[in-house]
Design goal:
The complex is a heterodimer of chains A (300) and B (457). Chain A is an all-alpha fold and 300 residues long. Chain A folds into 2 domains: 41 residues; 227 residues, MetI-like (MetI-like fold, Orthogonal Bundle). Chain A is built from 12 helices and 2 strands; from the N terminus they run H-E-E-H-H-H-H-H-H-H-H-H-H-H. The longest helix of chain A has 41 residues. Chain B has 457 residues and is an alpha/beta fold. Chain B folds into 2 domains: 167 residues, D-Maltodextrin-Binding Protein, domain 2 (3-Layer(aba) Sandwich); 216 residues, Periplasmic binding protein-like II (D-Maltodextrin-Binding Protein, domain 2), CATH 3.40.190. In chain B, strands 7, 8, 9, 10, 11 and 13 form a 6-stranded mixed β-sheet that branches. Chain B is globular and about 70 Å long. Classes of the chains: A mainly alpha (300), B alpha/beta (457). Chains A and B meet through helix 1 and helix 11 of A and helix 1, helix 3 and helix 17 of B.
């Protein structure tokens, strides 16, 4: 008589093997295309490597260089932080305002919602190119409108003062639809009973907004804040297309700096070090967000 | 009796198939046959036994892929037992990232397009092959080329820059591209200004620009040079300045003659107000759109200028510096080189020889009409074409006074990336250019020191 226990173990092994075989494409994909490159990139961050000759181990020199003698890293981090602060907070504020408006029972609200969402589904590069034309100092719409009221418009993308503002403005516009959509979903999840109870207690519209809507939307706001901060620290496409980081590096973001080091001047080691510094910065900011969230995020 | 497939069997097979597909996707791509020219019959995908196959790589612009394919097919037709795989990449900065990734991955192309500003780094790192022996053994007519063109691909070990007369050959130039001075005849006529002559100086250029400029109508006398275009050398050399000391150890950006050249351009925008501020001319090329009467740019710009329908235009010899009398024309040569790890260097050389010979360059010039040849005899034919009416003035300038562009030294890209933004800011915002040059000077010297340390490591 066969050993029942051994037979079961054999069956269990076969099942496990089947399971592993079934998930192996995705596991292999993650190991080959994510895990290995990440580890290799970490190793490269301790090397001097121009791709043309073998990597040379230089220890922490790349990290030390970035924090001490590198002329642009600090500036690109400041640019990125400025961009992140402006786009995330202005985006959240505007998104909330528009979401509240679009949550009202108004005629054509679905059409308005669709219109606001269009920039999200449009390719980012195409949108950035379109805005480049809008910002054209001679033939662009903005300066055309300003000329109509007697104002000589600025050189939006060609001046170090205006270029960052112009990119931030475009990025807020491009991301607004997504923020509105998520806020709308959050708003529609708030039970009407709270508002009815507040009305019975005599609360006005503002009181309802600040004491019911805002607290109950806080998990949604927190989600948008965390993903917004992470996304804005990784921004590349919009400034790359619109200004290429110029003029005079005034719109150079940290991921663009990484790209330029890696693929323009072939400093792969330095670029890998930038990547890991950004990674750590994002981890710290996300951790802080979670820590602070305990004070202002309320779950039902 | 056939066994019925259970759900478990189906899942196992699916998983196995998916894993196989993933692993297959990770395998190197099979080589593909390049697109055949329209006039030729399609070729077999698998080369017949005994044929030598090489991988040829280049970036392409406008119709270059079609014309290059035609030329390469001509080489295949003229050469027994050869095949090629063409890697044509749209002209972006990513082309060199691709090549360098191929080199790092141990799968470089056999041969391909060369750039003189990358040359020293590639030669020094042993990425490209020393082809001196091939040149000697086949008696390739390097002595018949413009000396400046072939100098772009000669390098002696230990040299910080290319161009050593006794240096070895690591590539062959495919073209010799000048910087040209073009003007809008209609804007000159409208302002009642005579066209530029051979005697013109920078002062004459400025005086004409002042008469032509109508800023309120967005009409400007001249386009100021800045950034990379100014670093090529024309104006700096003409004023007697330089970018670095002859031994490449110190910057000369703060040299009064160098500052003079940069300030002259800056003054066009901010002092004389005869040139549009940077970025203010929008998406269109301001010369092509008739906003600017005079421009200095690469000879490749003639392709677009030839499509101008709204006004007459021409080229003239570079106006000379009023004191030095110099009008140095900066030149650069793209070319072809063989990668050191080429699997079949003999066949790769055979192709280079075909492409870079006078006959090959004639084909290249014909197929791609904005590439003046590196051989004076072929170049003369091209400089005799019209428009513009005075095309030969460009050749006159080259023959009188020309020099290889200033940024062909080791790590020049990194050095320029470091000091460039300081000068760019002065041009973008109108801040003090002299102070910016002095700041940039310090940065450049520091970067040259770093580049030397890397060079010696």
């Amino acid at each position: 008589m066969p050993d029942k226990k051994a037979s079961l173990t054999g069956m269990r092994r076969r099942e496990e093997l089947t399971a592993w075989l079934f998930i192996s494409p995705i596991v292999l994909g993650i190991l080959i295309f994510q895990f290995y490159p990440t580890l290799f990139s970490f190793y490269i961050s301790f090397n001097q490597w121009n791709l043309l000759s073998p990597p040379k181990w230089i220890g922490l020199n790349n990290y030390v260089e970035l924090f001490t003698i590198d002329r642009f890293f600090k500036n690109t981090m400041i640019n990125t932080a400025t961009y992140a602060l402006a786009t995330v907070f202005a985006g959240l504020a505007l998104g909330l305002i528009f979401a509240v408006l679009l949550n009202q029972d108004i005629r054509g609200k679905y059409l308005y919602r669709a219109i606001y969402f269009v920039p999200v589904i449009a390719p980012t590069v195409a949108v950035a190119l379109l805005w480049q034309v809008l910002y054209d100092p001679n033939f662009g719409v903005f300066n055309g409108l300003l000329r109509m009221v007697g104002i000589h418009g600025p050189n939006w993308l060609g001046n170090t003062t205006w270029a960052m503002r112009s990119i931030i403005f475009e990025a807020i516009w491009a991301g607004l639809g997504f923020t509105i959509l998520i806020f709308l979903a959050g708003l529609q999840g708030i039970s009407q009973e709270y508002y009815e109870a507040a009305e019975i207690d005599g609360a006005n519209a503002l009181q309802k907004f600040f004491f019911i809507t805002m607290p109950l939307l806080s998990p949604t706001t927190f989600f948008l804040l965390v993903t917004g901060v992470i996304g804005s620290f990784q921004v590349f496409d919009i400034p790359f297309v619109m200004t290429g980081g110029g003029p005079a590096n005034s719109t150079q973001m940290v991921v663009m700096y990484l790209y330029n080091n890696a693929f323009v001047i072939q400093k792969m080691g330095l670029a890998a070090a930038v990547a890991f510094i950004v990674f750590v910065v994002i981890i710290i900011l996300t951790f802080l967000n979670f820590r602070i969230s305990k004070r202002w995020v309320f779950y039902e | 009796m056939s066994k019925k497939w259970s759900r478990r069997d189906f899942l196992k097979t699916s998983a196995l198939f998916s894993t196989g597909a993933l692993l297959a996707a990770c395998a190197p791509a099979a080589t593909t046959q390049p697109p055949a020219a329209a006039t030729e019959a399609p070729k077999a995908t698998v080369p017949p036994a005994g044929k030598k196959k090489i991988v040829f790589s280049t970036y392409v612009w406008s119709n270059l892929e079609a014309s290059m394919t035609e030329i390469l097919n001509g080489w295949v037709a003229a050469t027994p037992n050869v095949e090629y795989e063409g890697q044509f990449v749209p002209q972006t900065i990513d082309y060199w990232a691709k090549v360098q990734t191929q080199v790092a991955g141990g799968t470089p192309p056999d041969c391909g397009i060369a750039e003189c500003q990358r040359f020293v780094s590639y030669a020094k790192n042993g990425t490209i092959m020393d082809i001196s022996n091939y040149i000697m053994s086949t008696k390739f007519p390097v002595d018949k080329e413009f000396p400046g063109a072939i100098a772009c691909y000669r390098w002696a070990k230990g040299d910080f820059n290319s161009g050593a007369e006794g240096g070895n050959y690591y590539g062959l130039p495919s073209d010799f591209q000048a910087y040209i001075f073009a003007y809008n005849k209609k804007m000159f006529d409208d302002a009642g200004v005579s066209y530029p002559t051979d005697d013109w100086t920078w002062d004459d250029m400025l005086a004409a620009a002042k008469k032509i400029t109508k800023a309120d109508q967005n009409k400007w006398g001249i386009m100021a040079l800045q950034g990379g275009t100014l670093y090529r050398g024309n104006f700096v050399w003409s004023s007697g300045g330089s970018f670095y000391t002859p031994d490449y150890t110190k910057s000369m950006l703060a040299d009064p003659k160098t500052i003079e050249a940069f300030k002259w351009q800056w003054d066009l925008i901010y002092t004389h107000k005869v040139a549009p501020p940077p970025g203010s001319t929008g998406q269109q090329d301001p010369f092509l759109s008739g906003q600017v009467a005079m421009t200095v740019g690469g000879i490749w710009g003639l392709t677009d200028m030839r499509s101008i329908k709204d006004f007459g235009w021409d080229v003239a010899i570079f106006p000379k510096h009023p004191q030095t009398g110099k009008r140095t024309c900066s030149m650069e040569a793209d070319g072809w080189w063989i990668y050191k790890d080429a699997k079949d260097p003999d066949t790769a050389w055979n192709l280079l020889n075909y492409l870079a010979n006078p006959a090959g360059e004639r084909l290249f010039v014909k197929a791609n009409d904005m590439v003046p040849s590196t051989f004076p005899e072929v170049a003369q034919e091209w400089y005799a074409t019209k428009p513009p009416d005075h095309m030969s003035k460009i050749l006159d300038n080259i023959n009188q006074d020309s020099a290889k562009v200033a940024y062909t030294y080791f790590e020049s890209g990194t050095v320029m990336n470091a000091f460039g933004p300081i000068i760019d800011k002065a041009f973008a915002d109108g801040t003090d250019i002299t102070a910016a040059m002095q700041d940039a000077d310090k940065v450049m010297t520091e970067e040259l020191t770093k580049a030397w340390a890397l060079f010696k490591s």
